[in-house]
């Protein structure tokens, strides 16, 4: 790995750790802030049943959950984020709503 790539990778790892540490607070604010924003975004974008959606920087899944409802069981939502704690929060939320079409993935 070259120096620039190492620096970029190191910054990504640090960013992920910062947001992991905030995952509990992020989840607590979800219903007041993140979920309404995610729902408004998905209403604006209007994914249709059966479509595929990529939610980059998915956080705790606010947009991914709303998109999963919109695309239905025949669609798919791939949700990715640098913060594994937030990805896990989104994964649990999708499972609670039985949104199997929402696939949450931590960074590789």
Describe the secondary-structure layout.
Blueprint: H1 3-21, H2 23-45, E1 52-56, H3 62-71, E2 76-80, H4 84-96, E3 102-105
Parallel strand pairs: 1-2, 2-3
Helix pairs in contact: 2-3
Enzyme class: transferase
InterPro entries: SAM-dependent_MTases_sf
Organism: Actinomadura sediminis
Structure description:
It is a single chain. This protein is of the alpha/beta class. It has one domain: 3-Layer(aba) Sandwich (Rossmann fold), CATH 3.40.50.150. The protein has helices at residues 3-21, 23-45, 62-71, 84-96; strands spanning 52-56, 76-80, 102-105. Strands 1-2-3 form a 3-stranded parallel sheet. Helix 2 packs parallel to helix 3 (62-71). The longest helix is centred in the N-terminal third of the chain and has 23 residues, at 23-45. It is globular, with a radius of gyration of 14 Å. The two termini are 15 Å apart. Keywords: Methyltransferase, Transferase. Its EC number is 2.1.1.-. It comes from Actinomadura sediminis. InterPro entries: SAM-dependent_MTases_sf (IPR029063).
List keywords for this structure.
108 residues, alpha/beta, Rossmann fold, 3 strands, 13% strand
Structure summarized in a few sentences:
The chain is an alpha/beta fold and 108 residues long. It contains four helices and three strands.
CATH topology: Rossmann fold
Number of domains: 1
The residue-averaged pLDDT reads 86
Content of β-strand: 5-15%
* CATH architectural grouping: 3-Layer(aba) Sandwich
**Rg over CA atoms:** 14 Å
Number of helices: 4
Shape: globular
As a percent range, the share of helical residues equals 55-70%
CATH class: Alpha Beta
**SSE pattern, N- to C-terminal:** HHEHEHE
